[in-house]
Amino acid sequence: MSMQRAEAKPRNRIYESRGEPFFQAALVIVFILLSVTFLYPYWHVAVTSFTSPDFASASGFKLWPRAWSWDAYIHMFDASFLWSGYLNTIKVVLLGWSCSLTGVILGAYPLSKRDLPLRGVFTTIILVTMFVSGGMIPTYLLVNNTLHMRNSYFAIILPHCISVTHVIIARNYFMTLPDELEEAAVIDGANSWQVLTRVMLPLSTPILATISLWVIVSNWNAYFNCLLYITDSKKYVLQVVLRRIILTDSKEMTAASEAVANSTDTDIVTLRAASIMLATIPIICVYPFLQKYFVKGMLIGSLKG
């Protein structure tokens, strides 16, 4: 018996090939190099924003500022158009999040019910929109000429308010919830709205948090609809403001401040770098703490179709 046990132990071991350590080392090196290629451009912009104009204009790698300078940030903090872009972006994010989450819930919850009449037809129609769309020109004519939403925040939000992917993921998650919970609530006298708001939504916090994060990041980075439908510069979102700063003369963008326009201590390069940092810092500070929801969201509700 002891010999049989001794022979059985090696069978349960997990043997590694001789090349496995080299393969693991190669993976580590590759991911380190990828991380450097991702992080260095941002670090380069950060260093440029804190350095003097002479050093900022020099070519080559910049790993640390030679001469610290806060002038670019002082001038950008005095630029009213930057804070206007922040305010407009916050409005778009909040309004887009509320409209998108409401639409996703109202679309996904009924489709999760197997007794819904024509459930398969509705699901097919929704899925077709993932592959076929009206195109940019018909959408522009609809939003601008038919709905008359030019220079409105809804022109930025509504064309991409509800994502089919979000609806399908939320529907699959609702299908994983036990039917007995709904039946018990109905027996206690709850109507359909009460079942949804008091039973289903509290149990759907993970998927709602995941979709909320996707929607917030998408609306924060959105700029194309603003370029199409917004002509009033006071309603430009932050990304459009950032685009104008990068593609045009930054001192012209800050012409409202005579101290900035006539200053010789700042440079276009440092002003652009400072504006990029101010536009990206909020989402970068939030994203690492919420990254786990992105990974979790890719798996939630994927087991049922």
Key features of this structure:
MetI-like fold
Structural overview:
The chain is mainly α. It folds into two domains: 18-73, no CATH class; 75-297, Orthogonal Bundle (MetI-like fold). It contains 17 helices and no strands. The chain has helices at residues 2-11, 20-49, 53-57, 71-77, 80-111, 119-128, 136-146, 153-157, 164-176, 179-187, 192-203, 205-221, 224-229, 238-247, 250-253, 258-261, 268-297. The longest helix is centred in the first third of the chain and has 32 residues, at 80-111. It is globular. The model is unreliable at 256-261 (pLDDT under 50).
Secondary structure tally: strands? 0
Helix/strand structural class: mainly alpha
Rg measurement, Å? 27 Å
End-to-end separation? 50 Å
Query: What is the third-level CATH name, the topology of the largest domain?
Result: MetI-like fold
Can you tell me the CATH architecture of the largest domain? Orthogonal Bundle
Low-pLDDT stretches: 256-261
CATH superfamily of the largest domain: MetI-like
Counting DSSP H or I runs of 4 or more residues, the number of helices is 17
Share of β-strand residues? under 5%
**Total domain units:** 2
**Largest beta-sheet details:** none
Listing every helix as H and every strand as E from the N terminus to the C terminus, the arrangement reads HHHHHHHHHHHHHHHHH
Mean pLDDT, rounded to whole units?
79
- By CATH reckoning, the class of the largest domain would read Mainly Alpha
What percent of residues adopt helix (DSSP H or I)?
Answer: over 70%
Q: How would you describe the shape?
A: globular
